[in-house]
């Protein structure tokens, strides 16, 4: 059973208590989170050996990110930025109750990870890796991050490591046309694609239901497995000519941030553990539902708890 | 676009965390709130220049009230009480879950504001004011407060400032007959009345639905505009022979205190901005719904957020 | 109106904030709770003179238990354990949101109370007692605790004190067969039995609905009054050939722990105050519903609040 | 060994965290404290049976005072004020660091205790009492409180209960001439006087060192034992023609409020336990030093801890 | 008595609790601070009308800065940055105990204020201003900020507003040679200079004691008044051929950040109030000592408290 | 550069805030700590690869210990206890101010680690280890722990791993004669001994100063290097016929717990890094002084910070 290697940015997340506004005085909850490290942590909590590649400022904030990920069982292999401009990206999260939504302010421009170069990272991790995962956020960060993403995908491919990619379109980082161009270059190196249907429609201009989208993406880009996610409507996977579906498992939401990452982490952990895509989707759904019950970007759970959640859900797996 | 001037008491509000009882040990959340200053703050968050007249103890608690209101963008113009008996009124708020209700203990007797005299206040604020607002709480505080209320209404009238009044009947402060007598003397000086239908029935003995109540109040007391509020059933305004209605905009309630004040603040801000009563009611409804999502007596928001809430509500305005 | 005497263990309860996991860093809320002391405290809040018998370590943690119970109006009469192995049992409570449940980790083995001997306790409390109450948890703690339980029941019987017992089966403490054997020896000394229907089925192997179970238990063990509780379906009491029923009173749940104890405390307080079982059940239901709105094992309320809850519930009492 | 009965006001004490100002936003620490209840609690922690007489508002705040005192092992015997004007006095405490001092804002006017009448209190407590204690704060609260103080002193005298009084002059409550007049009427009923030398000089116009002051007070007012306290310079007791002295025991100060009350509580506890005044003074000094290490008005300790503090202090007792 | 106008950056300051490390998990205290706004706030607390000019991101963080300054009594007149790159600078403060020092991590590059242009600011503030103050931090932020600083100084000069400048050299922002060049261009527009002797030596290469430095700076740059500050050794002012000195007033340090700004704020407030430089220095020293007792960058005080601190200091003013 | 392997217990440490008593209500700070894991964490913060061997309950509390150690950079290699009696030891820490000391209540009896067997641990860690460290606490826990300690020492010896041992006598765990017997059997397997002089005197009955004690221990037990620690008087090392001394480096104490472990961790880290004992002692002293400035058992620092502390200390190294 090989390792999961992920690559991307992680940020300091700052949020006022629920019911308080960011603009009024008071302390802030501070946590560490980022799409790819969230995936690594979720998989690690399910028993996967997980590694996270990135670049961090060589200061207390960079060490904070490392400490946090280690506590989640992830092995960070990071390049340290000791330049004068080194910084950890931050984001401010303000929980909203109806009729105002939860609001995010990004303050991530110029973070150390945007200067990452392939030669700064440890490519030997692929020797023991089973899956490499990154998302569409990373190439959106900077040209350097985009190039490094491609280098890593290439190297992973050469090492016969399964390459996993989540579109994760962020409109605050780039336009749909920029994203599309980048996706086109990335997708040819991808074996397993996680595609939020919203992103497929916005960026890749594809219409149709989840099943047809999954089929078309697999076909167009020659991707072995495509998982299309539809928020509250669950997910659909296409692989090897077959479609399988997974409902969402109900959860009381304490913190919705990171739900999608927990889903991906659950799927990857289970695939690495040797299960088929259908079983993997169900673990992903359980991981996603559990994430909602935990404060912070990161799922904290155990394999046993995930399986309990699966058992309790009434036949969440359907075809 | 002129200023909004309000007059009334503001208190220190002390509350244990949700699920804790006031009678058990532990720290208390401490905030500043009062009907008229809440209105001023809500309007200020929508862009209105707002002034608050009052009398405060010349000590750290009085300064706390001033600091809090300034942070909300309100300009306090207060008389300072340096007497030995100077005090800031307080109230204790204990959140309740079904089957016990949220409970309030007032400890406001003898607060500095109860000794306020007209000559202590700065009447020049009316020179730049567009609307003067106070509520039925203020004359209930003391004879001095009642007289000062009347003086301010008279002066506002002479300065051609629109006089706004919210009945805001508080049974813990006076009897319905005392309130009625006071209302009678006040209402002849009022141009815009906010009348909770519950108070109209309890104090002014009027029956009938909101529309007829609005019409009758306008007629009886020769008031230009009457807004009758009906809690969950929304509000109705009568002006110039016309009736318009506004539904409540759904909200997840974090803290219900101050919802009515936010409504009034929203309506006044929009009227001052030049809108008609129908539009103003809708801003009031959005402000009220947003208030419910924020801890404390006071709405913290922006005009943009209010307009987003309006856009999302499905046709909240009806006729 | 005599006193209520209870006997059992009380523990330190440690819990992370909601949405946090016990396995991640951060402070813990710390409270004191135990079935029999919870009952005593609930009854005390309703006006009953309540005494709690137990054995505690002679250290700051033992004193903490005493201080907490005194604050709830209970008079602790405890044996102090100054041995080297003295300890206060603890339990860890992690609130869960769907799909994961609230989780409890007990760390109570070898607590001082497990070494309690009859001669260490003050049996003179029965001179002024009206009711003695303990639960099936106590004999499960240790042989010494079981023997002391029996001695206390015998002494209470000799003093004409009503003996109340709650089955309270805890599968983490003993097997159903061990429990059954113990129950058989206890029940002959019981005048008033609280029997969760789940426990009756699991341990006493009785089938049938609540009414028939109540009748059969009263008959089999010659118990004057049997109250069968059915969770969300309310309770049923059999006494003197008559059955009465009580619905659950709706509540918004802040903390469900201790709901059953509050029910028993409410029933006992009202019986001691001289009411009939039907009225007592209704007070129990109101106490239970109020408990749900309060953080911690222990109901903090007043008789007035309980009666308000009863008044608001729509005809909760039926026959 | 008889009981200690005390009589006086207790208040809710509200304080911002150290380094924060009362005038800026943020939660407040909330505790219960008052001179005479502090004395009762300190004595109770040393093993004395202690009773506290007072009048409290019949609401959650009054219950909070009762709960707090019970947790300290004190038995409150209070009259409940269910009038509309019932209130618990409050005081705001802001810790100061050099060059600004710790600041107190009293908000205690009109508290329920100011309306207390002798007939509302339970005079049967004197039947089992050994010592009755009150302070100069109580007669300063109101005429009713002053009269009740005198009635209690008279009744205690008739019951052969030792009457203890602490001058405790508070310049914010009355003038020195008012205080002097009151003291004159009180002191004829006093057997044991605690006299801060600062108060003796300010109010009773006596000059000279502690020894001569103690002698003179005992002589002038025919008081059996006079303890003169001198802050950092320790205390001096005169009784039966003899003088004994006690140094202050060094302490790191966390919270200085209540130090004097802990001293009195320690002295009274030890006198009630049968020790001579010299030993009692040493327990008082140890209790006072321990109080400084504990947050809040009230000493939380054990007899063992007090004795440890005594043992560690290097010969604190001198002659 | 005219207004004080200041210009500069304000940041969000994030700090873990004392004894905690920034690199370990946990919430962060969040406050707003910046040299020039600190000066404005300190002066405002002493009664000065204070205005703060700056540029802020048009989001919740920018509004937070405005709210905070308003609560301190400062009137912010800011340009709002609604660009995609708008950001509020942040800094992380970790309190250290010996042998490790308090540590600061700046994350302020690219803050909105670095893009400020003269035409974005309201130069009409000089019409009612008495003093304009900025510091050497502002021109170090960016070329745009440096140019705007010069424009403001020129405009202030033309409006006969006293121009005050604090060298405030920050080695993390620029080299000593860059700073020197900038200072040279600024100093010709300065009437009142605050010069930390450390900065004078490091940047302006001047040797000698404070007195001679003050004299030389006044002479070299034709500055009316030069105040040289020497940390624990107090300050020296040269004006009009005369030297006066001011000792430091002792304080227990809770938070040392902002001490220098409070000093400047105190001096400016008193100069604006009409006092001579000697008196002004003493107010500055008292303000500085009080700042040390308050958490946060900003002095929260009153004129009365400052005067009390002055009275208590033993003859702090010398010649 | 090989790894550091340590073996021992780690506990959950629960403590009320400073100035609060454990016996009064309120939340508890919760941290993880234990002598040997503290040493591992301190060494890891200095750059050593550190492994911790132990046995933990297979529940959230065991996982909490693992997560905490991972965050400190330690690799836990633990046996998981899934038995019914599995538990994590706890200890309660109450900070004291003079005249009362800091107090500890252990609740560690029967912790999972007391059942550890050699065959449950991964002895392959010695293949890459440079130093193995444990303390006198571990054999005191249980016979099984004592046997496992000896087995590990033997195996380490066979693998040519330096065996380090800290006497760490705990009077609450065993008598001096029990400890002595155990030490005798352990010391023959030890290459590097840390010997608090207090323990040497109490348990090993040796008199004389630190130098002679160090020499004698080395001689008696044939130990290569003996470090005798003397609290505030610094440490002395004897190795290879030479003595070197190290003063304590001054620190402001926030939390003294774990100071000795940080010292050992610093020494071991530096020895593993290839330094001589003299240099290693100085790193130990710096690590110990930094520990005092950080809340919790565990030193959180960096090599750079340790070296800064060394540079600032005035010639702490002497001969």
Automatic annotation (TrEMBL), chains A, B, C, D, E, F:
For this UniProt record, give its keywords in alphabetical order, as a comma-separated list: ATP-binding, Kinase, Nucleotide-binding, Transferase
What is the official name of this protein in its record?
2-keto-3-deoxygluconate kinase
User: Which InterPro entries does this UniProt record tie to the protein?
Assistant: KDG_KDGal_kin_Halo, PfkB_Carbo_kinase, PfkB_dom, Ribokinase-like
Does this UniProt record's set of keywords contain Zinc-finger? no
Asked if the Swiss-Prot or TrEMBL record annotates the protein with the keyword Transferase, the reply is: yes
Domain Carbohydrate kinase PfkB residue range list: 2-297
Which Gene3D superfamilies is this protein grouped with? 3.40.1190.20
Top-rank taxon: Archaea
Coiled-coil positions = none
Describe the family membership recorded for this protein in Swiss-Prot or TrEMBL: Belongs to the carbohydrate kinase PfkB family.
- GO molecular-function terms, A-Z: ATP binding; kinase activity
Q: Which organism is it from?
A: Halohasta litchfieldiae
């Amino acid at each position: 059973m090989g390792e999961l290697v992920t690559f991307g940015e992680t940020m300091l997340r700052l949020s006022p208590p629920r019911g308080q506004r960011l603009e009024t005085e008071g302390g802030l909850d501070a946590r560490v989170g980022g799409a790819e490290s969230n995936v690594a942590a979720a998989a690690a909590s399910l028993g996967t050996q997980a590694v996270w590649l990135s670049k961090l400022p060589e200061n207390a904030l960079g060490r904070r990110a490392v400490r946090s990920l280690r506590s989640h069982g992830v092995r960070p292999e990071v390049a340290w930025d000791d330049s004068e401009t080194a910084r950890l990206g931050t984001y401010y999260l303000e929980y909203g109750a109806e009729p105002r939504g939860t609001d995010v302010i990004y303050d991530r421009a110029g973070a150390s990870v945007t200067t990452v170069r392939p030669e700064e990272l440890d490519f030997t991790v692929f020797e023991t890796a089973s899956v490499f995962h990154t998302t569409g956020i990373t190439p959106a960060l900077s040209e350097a991050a985009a190039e490094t993403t491609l280098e890593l995908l290439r190297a992973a491919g050469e090492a016969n490591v399964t390459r996993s990619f989540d579109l994760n379109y962020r409109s605050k980082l780039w336009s749909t046309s920029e994203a599309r161009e980048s996706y086109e270059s990335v997708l040819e190196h991808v074996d397993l694609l996680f595609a939020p249907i919203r992103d497929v429609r916005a960026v890749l201009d594809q219409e149709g239901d989840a099943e047809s989208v999954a089929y078309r993406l697999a076909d167009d880009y020659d991707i072995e497995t495509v998982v299309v996610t539809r928020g509250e409507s669950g997910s659909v996977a296409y692989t090897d000519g077959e479609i399988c579906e997974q409902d969402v498992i109900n959860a009381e939401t304490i913190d919705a941030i990171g739900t999608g990452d927990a889903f991906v982490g659950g799927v990857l952990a289970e695939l690495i553990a040797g299960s088929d895509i259908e079983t993997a989707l169900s673990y992903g759904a359980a991981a996603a539902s559990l994430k909602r019950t935990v404060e912070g970007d990161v799922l904290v759970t155990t394999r046993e708890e995930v399986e309990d959640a699966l058992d309790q859900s009434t036949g969440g797996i359907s075809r």
